Amino acid sequence: xxxxxxxxxxxxxxxxxxxxxxxxxxxxxxxxxxxxxxxxxxxxxxxxxxxxxxxxxxxxxxxxxxxxxxxxxxxxxxxxxxxxxxxxxxxxxxxxxxxxxxxxxxxxxxxxxxxxxxxxxxxxxxxxxxxxxxxxxxxxxxxxxxxxxxxxxxxxxxxxxxxxxxxxxxxxxxxxxxxxxxxxxxxxxxxxxxxxxxxxxxxxxxxxxxxxxxx
Length: 215
Known about the structure:
- By secondary structure, this protein is of the alpha+beta class.
- It is 31% helix and 21% strand.
- It has 3 helices and 8 strands, in the order H-H-E-E-E-H-E-E-E-E-E.
- It has helices spanning 14-64, 66-72, 132-140; strands at 89-94, 97-108, 125-126, 162-163, 166-167, 170-176, 188-194, 202-208.
């Protein structure tokens, strides 16, 4: 006696598959932009946090090392271009307010910076020769900053590489310039900018203190 088994297997029809694929496509269309927005926001928040860590390290270094403090606030008095990053004194605007800041040091935020002679984020670079002692002290104490998520040897990676059409791949350590003398200022500021060109295209956004309202 034969035992004939009849297997009743029913798969998806073509119409059902099309419906499922359509629904998945619609969900992806709605959710992917939102998720990308969350990722960009998280990256910018990470940059703000890293900027604060860098600023805290600067404060510790200049408080602990008098030579580094003197070097930090020194400037080349015969080299005072108003906007040129090569001259270290830069006039920049953020949230409708114009600032004059003195660039003391810079630090690449990733390992593919476009500037010639880039150190790929492995060390701070000086703004002018007068800032050498400060930059040396920062490099000796870079462990204070590498807790900000360093990888591939980068001291402090920049997560958000573009904001409002401006690329950002370099940190700048600055202080507010005062016509009565830099020693009258004292406020450390951390900006981000673009490394394009031999010296870079200057400062784009200040992330410490008071980053852009919608950053």
